[in-house]
Amino acid sequence: NAGVMQNPRHLVRRRGQEARLRCSPMKGHSHVYWYRQLPEEGLKFMVYLQKENIIDESGMPKERFSAEFPKEGPSILRIQQVVRGDSAAYFCASSLSTSDEQYFGPGTRLTVT
Amino acid sequence: GENVEQHPSTLSVQEGDSAVIKCTYSDSASNYFPWYKQELGKRPQLIIDIRSNVGEKKDQRIAVTLNKTAKHFSLHITETQPEDSAVYFCAASIGTGNQFYFGTGTSLTVIP
To answer: Is A45 in Cβ contact with B101 (below 8 Å)?
Structure first.
């Protein structure tokens, strides 16, 4: 059973460009969470999605950030018009609908130049 | 919302000694408390968790204790080994389908 997959692992974008981060949950997991980790800091919740639905986006900035988890395919976190402050590691986690446990992907390290 | 505090931020121990990391939380509704280990450049890995209906849980050299009244929980690692060196994060959640609130992490160094 493959774990949570994320791609790309590293992404470099210039200021003003768009970043698209993908997350494929573990097989059988229908819940996806996105977290951001700034250098030498803890993980901060951004958004929680189930298939085709955003359940909680309270941690996601209102502007420039969006997330989706379509019926088919991976969950996508999209950052438009990136700024230097968006540079961070973005982790997704997945869980079963009946479980507390969240399993993390390897992360995407976004660098904005 | 929930606020999780974690101490210490850094911890150095001699190989074979014990390490203890402590966390407090603010929301009495939180009922699930996982601990994650993160090695440099790697993903957070779940190492142990505890639910609010128990006070202690042990898995080989790792144990977690929970005091619901005081709203604090602790990670205990015994007989530490160099490969235990990593950043450890505690977290709290009100349960299935809810976000985790993470502590700020403890960088543990085990000196051979």
So the answer is: yes
Residue A1 predicted with pLDDT over 60: no
- How far apart are alpha carbons A99 and A101 in whole angstroms? 6
Q: What is the DSSP string of B22-67?
A: EEE---TT--EEEEEEE-TTS--EEEEEEETT-SEEEETTEEEEEE
Q: Are A93 and A103 in contact (CB under 8 A)?
A: yes
Q: What are A6's strand-pairing partners? A: A23
Q: Does residue B104 come out as left (phi exceeding 0), alpha (psi in the -120 to 50 range) or beta?
A: alpha
Give the nearest partner residue to B46 out of A42, A59, A103, using CB atoms.
A103
Compute the distance between CA of residue B53 and CA of residue A86 in angstroms, rounded to an integer. Answer: 39
The reply to whether residue A100 touches residue B103, judged by beta carbons under 8 angstroms, is: no
How large is the C-alpha radius of gyration of chain A? Answer: 13
Tell me the pLDDT tens digit for each residue of B66-82: 999 999 999 999 999 99
Rounded-to-integer distance, Cα A95 and Cα A30, Å: 7
Rounded to an integer, what distance in angstroms lies between the CA atom of residue A56 and that of residue A47? 6
Render pLDDT for A22-61 as a digit per residue (tens, 0 to 9).
999 999 899 999 999 988 788 999 999 998 899 999 999 9
pLDDT in tens, B49-106: 999 888 999 999 999 999 999 999 999 999 999 999 999 999 999 887 788 999 999 9
A74 touches chain B (CB under 8 A): no
